[in-house]
Amino acid sequence: MSVHQVDKWGDTPIFYAVEFQKLETIICLLKKGASLAALNREGQSPASIASLELTRELQARVEEWGEPLKAPSPEPESPKAQKRKRAEEEEEEELELSAAEGVRALEEWAQRPPKFRKSAKQNRRQRKEAEVLCETTEFRPEYSIELPAADALEEIRQLEKTVVVEQAELFKAQFFIRSCRAADFCSVLGACEKDCQFFREYSEAVAKRGKSGSLVLVARAKRTDRIVAFLRADLRDHELVIRRHQVHQDHHGQGLDKLLIQCAEAQALSTGWDFQSVTVRLLNVHSAAQRKFLRLGFDIKEEPAADPSMSTLSMRLKMVRRANHVPAPPSESERFPPIKPYAPWLSFQMSDTPAEEPMFRALNAAMWDDVDSLTHPSMPPLIPVTP
């Protein structure tokens, strides 16, 4: 039985060991490669449901089950020495394969160069060239927003891996970072763990250019001719949902976020998408991204409070903004106009310049006639009231 095998609730064996507080069993599973950040269907992780006492004991023994902070550097040995220590080397290999994964394993995963599948490379004649949507000269270096071609998928994939490692730094203070697989980070951040899965999803979106309900845009720096940001948006329930929005760390603060979203809206409208708002979900711990989207006009949508047992990896905020082509809703003064006073004498009291007495009587002759009509001959006689 694998330590990553899940049941119908999405729980792995370490979930049950944590629930029953079996410390030695937990450490044994962690040494075999179990993850403390694996999420079940309720958004819980073994680290989030662990009691305070169990968490303290695991932190005290983190050097025993956690990923080594430095990779081992084996020294070159002669063939004779290798034969003598063959049994020891096999044991070390088993221990190395069964060690917990953490930040170092994530960095090694990001450094693997992605390779596009050969079947797609054979169809170069059928590919579409990149289309430039807009360019900017306000910033230095200059950027261009493009609909990418299939040749740019490897570069987009490498950028996605780099940004996943950057966002993993948000959880460096959590103790589960010493036993968290790359697959767990990718599932939380919306990235693909395997290159083949990424190329399968993005190649179709790039080829159809928004006609399949998914759109991919990239930002390219003109100086280096490298892709420094990309965005993927989908159409769901009359909303333009931003699934992936990544900017390289060296190009933050250049206005690429706003430019990518504006171009995505314009391209989606030209393709025929029907949406009324733009939506994005961000991690609760990613305060910098929240401030950035608040400056772009997004508002935090109120949702039911999260369960305290949920993992910090699964806690997200939903931010919504009205689409640019949708007219602004009427203001409160337009929806509820001020009510004019009905009594005519209040209009004179509210006036800035009081009217003169003769003009006052002339304008309100009807009111005076109404007062005198009580004794007009056409009125019926008054009924006397006896005391």
- Overall mean pLDDT stands at 78
The biggest sheet amounts to: 8 strands, mixed
What is the level 1 CATH name of one domain?
Alpha Beta
Tell me how many strands there are: 8
Alpha plus pi helix count: 18
Overall helicity:
25-40%
Q: What overall geometry do the principal axes of the alpha carbons give?
A: flat
- CATH superfamily name of one domain? Gcn5-related N-acetyltransferase (GNAT)
SSE run = HHHHHHHHHEEHHHEEEHEHEEHHHH
Distinctive features:
387 residues; alpha+beta; Aminopeptidase; eight-stranded mixed β-sheet; flat
Could you walk me through the main structural features you see in this protein, from its secondary elements to its overall organization?
By secondary structure, the protein is an alpha+beta fold. The chain has a domain at 101-322: Aminopeptidase (3-Layer(aba) Sandwich). Helices cover 39% and strands 14% of the residues. The chain is built from 18 helices and 8 strands. An 8-stranded mixed sheet has the order 1-2-3-4-5-6-8-7, with helices on both faces. Helix 8 runs antiparallel to helix 10 (153-168). The termini are far apart. Residues 92-98 have low confidence and may be disordered.
